[in-house]
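Teaching soon. Invent one.


***
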Amino acid sequence: MEQYLYADEYDDNEIKILTVGQLLEFFNKSDDKRNGSDLESYIQDNIKMDLIEPFCPHKEAETVVCDLQPLAKQYILQEAEKVFNGMPWVDTQEELDNVYHEKIKNLYDTVNFSEFVTYL
């Protein structure tokens, strides 16, 4: 099972995690379902329109943040900024620049990836 990222337009475009279960809920309420589309087509259409983006930090462990897809990059920087803003002795912008050039596998102490479930 895949998890996706999306910009929540009702929460200042904060990047959030969207599970397949949540996508299924949206799909069941959509015109696409009423028009005979299936869930996989609905997901692919949303990916093509850049409304959602698949992301798994475990699969992207060796990827540098600056090389990620746009929503994934924005999600990591958003979550890191929350951490650094809580540390008044830290230069947040300098730390975000460091995160931008770091591999995902080195950010587990900065970004909480526990919301991402690994399916074997």
User: Anything to note?
Assistant: The chain has a mean pLDDT of 89. Residues 15 and 78 are 8 Å apart (CA to CA).
